[in-house]
Automatic annotation (TrEMBL):
It comes from Pedobacter hiemivivus. One of its GO terms (molecular function) is DNA-binding transcription factor activity. This is XRE family transcriptional regulator. Keywords: DNA-binding. It holds the Pfam family HTH_19. Residues 17-71 form the HTH cro/C1-type domain. One of its GO terms (cellular component) is cytosol.
Length: 81
C-alpha cells in the first residue's frame, strides 16, 4: 500500500466514524467520552489526520457497539475521493 492509498484509507475511515457518530446524534465530546479518547484526537481522526492504533480503533468500535471490522465497511460512502 503506497502513501496515497494510506491517506485515502485514513480519510475514508474518518468519514465513516463521523457519519456513524452523527447518525447517533452524538456530539464530538459525547462520543469521545464514550470511546474513552480525547475530543481533539477524535476531531483529527474524523478529518483523516492521524495514523490510528488498533487499540484506538477498537475503543471506537466498542463505543459504536460494533465489531472492529465493521468500521471498515465503506459501502455507504462516496468512493470518488
Amino acid at each position: 500500500m503506497n502513501t496515497s492509498d494510506l491517506e485515502l484509507l485514513k480519510g475514508k475511515l474518518g468519514e465513516r466514524i463521523k457519519g456513524l457518530r452523527e447518525k447517533r446524534e452524538l456530539s464530538i465530546r459525547q462520543f469521545a467520552l464514550l470511546a474513552d479518547i480525547e475530543h481533539p484526537q477524535l476531531i483529527n481522526i474524523e478529518k483523516g489526520r492521524v495514523d490510528l492504533k488498533l487499540s484506538t480503533l477498537n475503543k471506537i468500535a466498542k463505543a459504536f457497539d460494533m465489531d472492529l471490522m465493521a468500521l471498515f465497511d465503506f459501502s455507504g460512502l462516496n468512493t470518488e475521493k
